[in-house]
Design brief:
The protein is mainly beta and 504 residues long. The chain is 13% helix and 41% strand.
Length: 504
């Protein structure tokens, strides 16, 4: 039977006889150790007619009178004599590609725009003004853009969703829902992956213009001296603590001080430790060139020895007395330099069961400062501290607050918050077919606790009397339990302070 109240278009051609529509959506993660969350997909059936057999990569538009609008791109289809079953990924699938992304310094809004435009998405997206101006200094490289978007979401505590065909970048915890007429409600608690600590890397990244990038940090005794024979072409590759958009080509000079860093230069010494005159080197075919590889993090150096055999082999070096020499190669570049550091956070105090010392090392290059690492790393520490609670609900209806679900549940339910059993949860995935079926993880914040107690006018004595002899684990399972239950139309601000992302 065809779906009532639903219109499906394939490349703007209406298909009125569609049936068995199911739309699956995930929310983007807020815990930087969690990279789950797909782009979302839909399935439906259409009649097996000639015009429906040539729909490869067709644009799918769904208009549901109760659940709203959404869009997708046909990925696969097949069928029998009467029906064709279609699977389409949401429009977010356009981000699920490998691209070379340059290093970026600016705002979060600019970073997300860079990601979208690298995949050909130049319109049909919005970035909430409350988060768009956060400072973003992020190294580039060859990457899956959808994975990069999710890393940015956890590092800056934002979420990305497809709402009515528009990709929205927005703050989390602003949408609140409650289900009614539940067909099922299940919950589970487990220790997950217990560990004593977790590690969060942060990068102290900064933008530089024509700054010394090789040797990293300036000259030192460990820098290798490059050597080449007469007429030989030798190639070298060096990893950088930088992500570059440009590098100055080096000029051959007579002399390079150990601590010189004003321009890209090199000097050449012959086998007799005497310096080769730059003009003589170049006139006889000697040269040294450099290029940035596709990762933006490595330099490829091509060194060609001049054709004169008498002074071969040639070294890119300055004699330093006796048989010693130091590298004379200095390279200046433009881009982002960084210094990776590690912040260790306590996780589980349960020495008996937490056998792992370090549960995970989060490596997210969008995390720039120690303060930011601490704030965004707290959910990771919680994940490895044990006692993880999830709920799985199938429901015939979703109540809405404000206008978020008024004829637009698609894109708004994944990521929404639901209150159940004395704690807040955040929906991580939802499937909308005959029912809404969703899974949600615990997502209670300090603001929630304050809203339940301080905001309700309750005192410390009320707290003590209410909890009595309860243990920490008792409270952890129901942290927002209070004599006065929290009202669910409170919209707390995100609990990540702006100071974590200071303007430059």
């Amino acid at each position: 039977m065809a779906l009532m109240g639903v219109q499906i278009k394939l490349d703007d051609r209406p298909e009125w006889a569609a049936k068995k529509l199911g739309v699956q959506e995930d929310s983007t993660p807020l815990d930087p150790s969690d990279m789950t969350g797909g782009v979302g997909q839909m399935t439906f059936e259409i009649p097996n007619r000639p015009e429906n057999r040539s729909i490869r990569h067709a644009l799918v538009k769904v208009d549901h009178t109760e659940r709203g609008l959404t869009e997708g791109i046909v990925d696969a289809y097949g069928g029998n004599r009467s029906d064709i079953t279609v699977t389409a990924f949401s429009r977010l699938v356009l981000l699920n590609v490998e691209q070379r992304i340059p290093p970026y310094s600016g705002t979060l809004g600019g970073l997300m725009t860079l990601y979208f435009e690298s995949c050909g998405i130049t319109s049909g997206f919005t970035i909430d003004s409350s988060i768009a101006s956060k400072t973003a200094i992020v190294p580039g490289g060859k990457m899956n853009v959808w994975e990069a978007v999710k890393r940015a979401c956890s590092a800056f505590q934002v979420e990305v969703s497809l709402v009515a065909g528009v990709i929205k970048v927005r703050p989390p915890r602003k949408i609140i829902a409650s289900s009614h007429r539940d067909a099922s409600f299940d919950w589970s608690i487990d220790d997950g992956e217990l560990a004593k600590t977790v590690e969060i890397a942060y990068y102290q990244s900064k933008w530089v213009t024509n700054a010394l990038v090789y040797p990293a940090g300036g000259w030192n005794d460990d820098v290798d001296v490059l050597t080449v024979d007469a007429g030989e072409t030798a190639e070298f590759e060096f990893e950088l603590d930088a992500s570059l958009v440009d590098v100055q080509q080096p000029v051959c000079v007579d002399d390079v001080d150990r601590y010189y860093d004003d321009s890209s230069v090199y000097a050449v010494a012959g086998n007799d430790d005497k310096m080769i005159v730059p003009e003589y080197w170049e006139d006889n075919g000697g040269r040294l060139t450099v290029e940035i590889d596709e990762t933006t993090r490595k330099l490829k150096i091509t060194l060609v020895g001049m054709s004169v055999e008498k002074y071969s082999p040639y070294r890119i070096a300055m004699p330093a007395g006796g048989s010693s020499a130091y590298s004379s190669l200095r390279l200046l570049g433009t881009g982002i330099t960084y210094k990776r550091e590690i912040l260790t956070l306590d996780a589980s105090p349960d020495d008996e069961h937490a056998t792992e010392q370090v549960g995970v090392t989060v490596d997210n290059e969008c995390i720039r400062t120690k303060d930011q690492a601490f704030i965004v790393g707290l959910p990771t520490a919680m994940r490895y501290s044990g006692c993880q609670r999830k709920i799985t609900v199938s429901t015939r209806g979703i109540n809405k607050f404000e206008d978020y679900f008024a004829n637009q549940a698609y894109g708004n339910l994944a990521g929404a918050r639901v209150f159940a059993d004395g704690t807040w949860h955040r929906i991580r995935n939802n499937t909308a077919d005959d029912l809404h079926s969703y899974t949600a993880e615990v997502d209670t914040t300090i603001d929630d606790l304050n809203a339940a107690w301080v905001g309700s006018g309750l005192t410390y004595d009320d707290w003590r009397n209410f909890w009595g002899d309860a243990t920490f684990d008792d409270m952890r399972l129901r942290p927002v339990d209070a004599p006065v239950q929290p009202i669910t139309n409170v919209y707390p601000d995100a609990w990540y302070p702006d100071e974590v992302y200071p303007a430059e």
